[in-house]
Amino acid sequence: MSAYLDAVAQLEQTVKGQGAGWNAISAEYALRMQLQNRFKTGLDIAQHTANVMRADMAAYDADSSQYTQSLGCWHGFIGQQKLISIKKHFGGTKRKYLYLSGWMIAALRSDFGPLPDQSMHEKTAVPALIEELYTFLKQADARELGGLFRELDAARAADQQGKVAELLAKIDNFESHVVPIIADIDAGFGNEEATYLLAKKMIEAGACAIQIENQVSDEKQCGHQDGKVTVPHADFLAKINAVRYAFLELGIENGIIVARTDSLGAGLTKQIAVTKTPGDLGDKYNSFLDGDYIQSADDIQNGDVVVKANGKLLKPKRLASGLFQFKAGSGVDRVVLDCITSLQNGADLLWIETEKPHIGQIAEMVNRIREAVPNAKLVYNNSPSFNWTLNFRQQVFDAWQAEGKDVAGYDRAKLMAVEYDGTELGLEADKRIRTFQADAAREAGIFHHLITLPTYHTAALSTDNLAKEYFGAAGMLGYVEGVQRKEIRQGIACVKHQNMSGSDMGDDHKEYFSGDAALKAAGKDNTMNQF
User: Fold this and answer.
1) Which candidate in 73, 222, 339, 494 is catalytic?
2) Is 494 annotated as catalytic?
3) How far apart (Å, rounded) are the C-alpha atoms in residues 386 and 383?
């Protein structure tokens, strides 16, 4: 007997045990509703997805080809359609996650309207989007299972026993659309207590993995913009501790913390680190400060700050903003120190924000980190802020030039041009882009590849195409040819938008509750029957 039928039989005993007052209750219908809502709370989701992600991390440690991926989604519907598509095309959701981007919350979900990625949006928008995403993913479960249940009823009515057995197996082995979300908490939205309080809300909404960065909270900038300001390690580690305490308080003992460093592109710090002994963590942080060694008090001007570093007196360079400057060229060393320190103090994964997608650059840093922490793993931003075409064409150009290959037919500064699309160089660059994730997972320790805001760009692109056609000469054909016909032929589930919004599930419930008296929407006059 199937697990489904076993569960029906068990629940039937409960229903019968309540006497005549429950005669209208079907144990099978009640079980269906339970299966369609298997995650009762956000903490259930956080625990389930943490288990999934930990297993995937272990699988990657054993085999780097088992890397994971995600796309950033700014609305529950987008996340839902992504997972429905993944199940349709790949048969399951294994190693496929969601990413929650602080950038997209700021740009698309703030009550203030579109904002830059500078932690100015409401912090409550972060857990709200996590909850929304999981609400839509749970609805995707309910919708797919509802379809299987209706097919099961039809097969039983037609006495198709083979079909019944096949559907019962599908129900027993159903794979949820609920997958891990790596959620961006920016720099914590305040001090360590503020970080803890927000982390709790995010975990309660379902987050199993929280990504936090080492920028100053009130000076936070997008990782791909200038003006980034980092904090001393002690400040950042306090926030990592705050997130860990939030996980432990809520019982998610295997929750994942992703420690992001922006030091590669951050040349400024707001404060000088506290140091007690030469060579301690604060002293190491201060050793990167740019400045001048001085001999006496005569070298100090009004308002200057002086620290003891390397056994000498250092007068750090202070800008008009009050910020201190790091030595030029110290970014890689600071990244390595950041990463080792984070992993040795409670973080599980790393995020190194880079200025270009270059496997050699990433591997150089990761190899140094792995000298101290051998199983160090990265979450990496395959960012839309990179010009992937130009970057990789220039990488191929430089490699070929170094090898002595003739590149006279190419203008390195203009390699984005369409005329290079079909050339040997253009094709080689595209090949490297295609294999970038697998190559970087193997050579540079990248466990998880994400794109932060791809659906921001796809929404803009598809809307531009539709507007151009529909309001132009094509008229209604612009929608039919560009959207609906493709939906039908590609098997896009939401072409039946009434079904996607829950109409059929509503009909099911009406039948459960009212029996033959139920007034259903899915009758012969429902225009969705055209699809």
Assistant:
1) 222
2) no
3) 6
